[in-house]
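ligand=fe (ii) ion
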Amino acid sequence: MTTETLHYTIPGLDEGAARKTIDLLQSRLHATNDLQLTLKHVHWNVVGPHFIAVHQMIDPQVDAVRAMADALAERIATLGGAPRGTPGALVEEREWNDYSIGRATTQEHLAALDVTYQGVIGSYREAIKTLDDLDLVTQDILIGQTEQLELFHWFVRAHLEDQGGQLQTSGEATEAGAARAARSD
Ligand SMILES: [Fe+2]
């Protein structure tokens, strides 16, 4: 929870609502900073016959997710808060583990990214619901970002579908489990 004093916030928003909104934005800022680094890590570590397609598919996602982090951080500042964007703060405050796959095939990384995107999008949708009673302008920012994240999630999942439309990795809850399921196919 934000403990710093807000010297000002947005007109029409009380300080309690502003603080809660800043906390939600901070959690999204950590999620997008983590995701853009993770996507770049995948860009560097994919191998296999579909290397170039996946390697090149990921860079526009990195750029878009970095822009999301920027918008979130600037919204925190607009609300009178101080965005925490350092690696140390991210590692200390995040509620998930580091991406666990190193050098691996495109299918393994895409399977792991499917799980990663599920986590990020699920938490975005929870934040959107909470913002219903706090700040609709911030909610609008998160809705726009969720639309983009869901599109990128589809790009990832389209590679994991078989001809019957089934996902190779459906039911896998961890990155490592999803990567294993993709490997055995
Ligand atoms: Fe590159």
